[in-house]
Amino acid sequence: SPSLCCRIDVGRMKIELFADVVPKTAENFRLLCLKLLPYRKDGVPIGFKGCTFHRVIKDFMIQGGDFVNGDGTGICSIYRGPFADENFRMKHSAPGLLSMANSGPGTNGCQFFITCTKCDWLDGKHVVFGKVVDGLLIMRKIENVPTGPNNKPKLPILIAQCGEM
């Protein structure tokens, strides 16, 4: 399975993707990490580098990846728009699992979240496609930042760099 590394303002997380179980979802995330999309904004390739974790809920999850609007409303994917839920074989059974954020069936795009605990009520609704294999303490640091309205961190938590290992 491919491994990716994200350097965030507060540290570094290594992520393993479940490409053997959910290849389309894993590839979408991988290419967004590497900015290998045909899309450009003002001539610059788009992807996760430079976007923020825009939603943080202690004892639940940290959410990011909205490089479109930065607030949880943006959808973009390597498939040109929202894409279908690939399968729900992997479960939200532990902290550190990477899952697609969506607004209902078939609305996957660029947004993802990382579980901070077991979240079995999300099974069958959100596609788990990877896990944090190094950097759970960084996830905990993000989980504990002060937040304001809509669970938005009071200070930006920026994805400074991301790429393959």
From TrEMBL:
Its main localization is: cytoplasm
**Per the record, what are the reactions this protein catalyses?**
[protein]-peptidylproline (omega=180) = [protein]-peptidylproline (omega=0)
Give the residue spans that cross the bilayer.
none
Listed GO biological process terms: mRNA processing; protein folding; RNA splicing
Q: Which InterPro entries match?
A: Cyclophilin-like_dom_sf (IPR029000), Cyclophilin-type_PPIase (IPR024936), Cyclophilin-type_PPIase_CS (IPR020892), Cyclophilin-type_PPIase_dom (IPR002130)
One GO cellular-component annotation of the UniProt record comes to: cytoplasm
Task: Tell me the ranges covered by the PPIase cyclophilin-type domain, including all copies.
Answer: 9-164
Tell me its family: Belongs to the cyclophilin-type PPIase family. PPIase H subfamily.
Q: Summarize the protein's role.
A: PPIases accelerate the folding of proteins. It catalyzes the cis-trans isomerization of proline imidic peptide bonds in oligopeptides.
Q: Supply the name of the protein.
A: Peptidyl-prolyl cis-trans isomerase
Task: State the organism of origin.
Answer: Dicentrarchus labrax (European seabass)
UniProt lists the gene as ppih
